[in-house]
Design brief:
The chain is of the alpha+beta class. Among the domains are: 33 residues, Double Stranded RNA Binding Domain (2-Layer Sandwich), CATH 3.30.160.60; 71 residues, Double Stranded RNA Binding Domain. The chain has 6 helices and 14 strands. A two-stranded antiparallel ribbon has the order 1-2. The longest helix is centred in the first third of the chain and has 12 residues. The protein is globular and about 60 Å long. The model has no long low-confidence stretch (mean pLDDT 82).
Length: 196
């Protein structure tokens, strides 16, 4: 393995790989090709493992369970991040304001507060966004597309998180518990009530 290390080099960014298969998979980043397509909502992915994880949205299956609060997740990485809530660990820290985060993605998003940058722009209405995923979600406003469908009642949603929240209606699950009175809720944040 050490002799073969770096034998396969990307001609675009010069990143090196031990196996040719890893290089082929890496090249999809540069070509933008997404050969694995969801037969339910037509979302496309660069890897078959990403498609497999995505399919759990449509099946409603949540195979990864927290052994402390029994909350369930579609991906092991999401469960791993969730566990940081219980441990109180925040391994990612902003070097400018020392604010701490449980996810590197949240730290990256936070850094935009300091830079004021909004690098992702909608080509239809010129609205600017701090992340590509926020722009992608925004584009659904223009297309009217609702790619996330409940397999029990066929209600459709623009975001997977909205579908996951909706699924709690069918399961009756209330995963969020008040530590003072033990009352359970379907959401971690209670929506604001109308003022009289």
């Amino acid at each position: 393995m050490h002799v073969e290390s770096g034998k396969h080099t990307c001609e675009v960014c010069t990143k090196k790989f031990t196996r040719s298969g890893d290089l082929k998979r890496h090249m999809l980043i540069h070509t933008g090709e997404r050969p694995f397509s969801c037969k339910v909502c037509n979302n496309k992915f660069t890897q078959s493992s990403s498609l497999k994880s995505h399919m759990l949205i449509h099946t409603g299956e949540l195979p990864f369970c927290c052994n402390l609060c029994n909350k369930k997740f579609t991906q092991s990485s999401t469960l791993k991040n969730h566990m940081l809530i219980h441990t109180g660990e925040s391994p990612f820290s902003c070097k400018l304001c020392n604010k701490k985060f449980t996810k590197s993605f949240n730290l990256k998003s936070h850094m935009i507060i300091h830079t004021g940058e909004s690098p992702f722009s909608c080509k239809l209405c010129n609205k600017k966004f701090t992340t590509s995923s926020t722009l992608k979600s925004h584009m659904l406003i223009h297309t009217g597309e609702r790619p996330f469908c409940c397999n029990l009642c066929n209600k459709k949603f623009t975001k997977s998180s909205h579908l996951n929240r909706h699924m709690l209606i069918h399961t009756g699950e209330r995963p969020f518990c008040c530590n003072l009175c033990n009352k359970k809720f379907t959401q971690s944040v209670t929506p604001p009530t109308a003022k009289s």
